[in-house]
Amino acid sequence: MARLALLSVSNKTGLIDLARSLVEEFEFDLISSGGTAQALKDAGIPVTKVSEYTGSPEILGGRVKTLHPRIHGGILARRDVPQDVTDLENNQIRPIDLVVVNLYPFEATIAKPGVTLAEAVEQIDIGGPAMLRASSKNFAHLTVLCDPAQYDEYLQELRQNNGEASLEFRQKAALKGFQHTASYDQAIASYLSQQSQTSLPQQYTLNGTELQSLRYGENPHQPATWYQTGTTASGWAAATKLQGKELSYNNLVDLEAARRIIAEFPDTPAATIIKHTNPCGTALGNTLVEAYQKAFNADSISAFGGIVALNRSIDAATATELTKTFLECVVAPDCDAEAQKILAKKSNVRVLTLADLSSGPKTLVKQIAGGFLVQTADDVIADTSKWQVVTDRQPTADELAELLFAWKVCKHVKSNAIVLTSDRTTLGVGAGQMNRVGSTKIALEQAGDQAKGAILASDGFFPFDDSVRTAAAAGITAIVQPGGSLRDQDSIKAANELGLVMVLTGIRHFLH
Q1: Is 452 considered catalytic here?
Q2: Residue 173 to residue 151: CA distance in whole angstroms
Q3: DSSP secondary-structure letter at 238?
Q4: DSSP string for residues in 387-432
Q5: Of 143, 467, 502, 509, which is least surrounded by CB within 10 A?
Q6: For 330, which DSSP code?
C-alpha cells in the first residue's frame, strides 16, 4: 500500500513542487483540507479531501476539519506496538507517514493596523497545532514538516535513504515542530495579555528564531547569535543593508541606542552619533546635512568609529560629510541613488535603511542569576505643559525648546547623566559616573567655553546644590531636572541666587 501524507498549510510556498515529488517520485497518497486541497487540485495533483477520507464534513465554518480519530489515530499510532496496529486495522485507519502543516498567520494578522480582537481570534489555529504536536511526539514513526525551508532537505533524505527519512532528521524536524507551536502560543498569549492587562503578566515568555550567527558578542571569547521575534520581520530584522561588512553584536546594540534617540525627533531633521550606547553628538538642523555637521562637531574626536542615525533620507550633501571620517554604521529611513554612490567610496562602512525608526520594543528584558527582569519601555513623551518652573526667572520660549531638546537626549544617556546643549546641539555629555558631580564636571569640561549661555539637563535630581553652583560658575543659564530630592529647596535657592532658570519635570529617566 502506498504511504500516506497529510498536507495542510497556510503558507503555500513550495507546496506544489513538494507534492508533485511525493506523488511522482515516491508514490505517496495525499490527503488535504480546504485551500491546500484546492491548490493541489488546481495543479493537477491527485488529492483526497480530509472530509472524504474521514467521512465527516468540515463544520463550524472550517473550524473543525482535521480533529478526527482517522487523522490523529494515523498520526499517533506506534507501528511497533501490536495494540496500536490492531486499533488501526479495526477502525480502518491508515498510518500517516508525513505531516506537512504550518499555521494560520496569527502574527501577520495582529501586525496589521486596526485589526480587531475578533479578527485576531479567528486566526488562532487549533487543528494545526494539534497535528504538529501529535506528529512531533511520534517522530519515531513519521516525519513532520512545518517550514517550507525543510522541503528540499526532506526530499533529499528520501532520495538518499531508499525513500525513508532518517531518525535523526525526523527528530530534528520534531524539535522544530515543538518550537513552532511554542512560538505560536507565546504570540497569542502575549497579544491577549496586551488586550486585557495594564500591568505586566504573571508569566512572561520570550521566544525567537535564529536570524544570524554573529562573529562574537561584546568580546571575541563570547559566542553570540541574533534572534528575530515573531514570524514577520520588524525592527532591525527588516532593515536593508546597502553596503559594508556583517553587523556585529556591538553594532546592533549601538544601532538600537541610536534608534531610540532619533525616534525622539520626528518633526525636524536630526542626527545622532553613538559610541558605546551613549550619544557623543546629537543635533537638530534646518537640513539633514546641517544636523549631522552639528552633531559631528559636538565631539569630533569621539565621533571617530561611531554609529550614526539620521531621521531623513540620506542625500548627496550628507553622504559627502559622512565619508569624511571613519564610521562603523549609518542608518536612515532611506538613501538616494547619488548618496549611495558617494558612500560606496567607503565600502567598509555599514549603511542601512530602516523605514520605521520610531517603533521599538514595548518591554525590556534583562537577565539576572536565576531569572530575568522585565520592565515596560521608557517611552513617556515629554510634555512641557506639565513641567514646573520653580525659580523666579522664567524661561523664554527658545530656552524652553532648548530645555526640551536636552531633556530628550539626556533620557538616553547612561546614569548618572548630565547633558549640556545650545542651539539644539549637544555640547557636553557626562555619562555613567558614580556621582552627579562627576558627570557634571565631565560635561562642562567637554563643553569648555561653549558652556556660557548653555542649558543643562540631569536625568535625576540633585541631592545637593553643588552641581548647580558648579554649572552656574561655568556659565549655564537654565537647568531641567526631575526634582524629588529632600534637598530640592537647596538647589532651587541656589538657582535663584545665581539667576538661573530651573524646571522640574516630575519624572526621571535613569538608564542603567
Answers
A1: no
A2: 11
A3: G
A4: -EE-SSSPPPHHHHHHHHHHHHHHTTSPSS-EEEEETTEEEEEE-S
A5: 509
A6: E
* CA 183 – CA 189 distance, rounded (Å): 10
| pLDDT at 322 > cutoff 70 | yes
CB atoms within 10 A of CB 138: 20
pLDDT confidence band for 332 (50 / 70 / 90): very high
pLDDT at 417: 96
Choose the catalytic residue: 12, 137, 245, 493.
Answer: 137
Compute CA distances 83 → 97, 136, 141, 147, 503, whole Å.
19, 21, 15, 33, 79
pLDDT tier for residue 506 given thresholds of 50, 70 and 90: very high
Could you say which DSSP state residue 95 is in?
A: P
> Of the residues 241, 245, 276, 493, which is catalytic?
276
- How would residue 377 be classed by pLDDT, with cut points 50, 70 and 90? very high
Q: Which residues are CB-neighbours of 490 under 8 A, at least 6 positions away?
A: 464, 465
Provide the 3-class DSSP secondary structure of residue 220: coil
How does 73-105 read in b/e, with b if 16+ C-beta sit within 10 Å? Answer: bbbbbeeeeeebeeebeeeebbbbbbbbbbbbe
According to the model, what pLDDT value does residue 289 have? Answer: 98
Q: Is 137 a catalytic residue?
A: yes
C-beta of residue 324 within 8 angstroms of C-beta of residue 343: no
The pTM score is 0.79
Look at residue 168 and give its three-state secondary structure.
helix
Helix spans in 44-81 (H): 50-54, 69-76
User: 310-320 pLDDT, tens per residue?
Assistant: 999 999 999 99
Nearest CA among 350, 348, 351 for reference residue 332 = 351
Q: Which three cell numbers stand for residue 152?
A: 528540499
Backbone angles phi, psi at 71, to 5 degrees: -85, -55
Q: What tens digit of pLDDT does each residue of 103-124 get?
A: 877 777 777 788 787 887 777 7
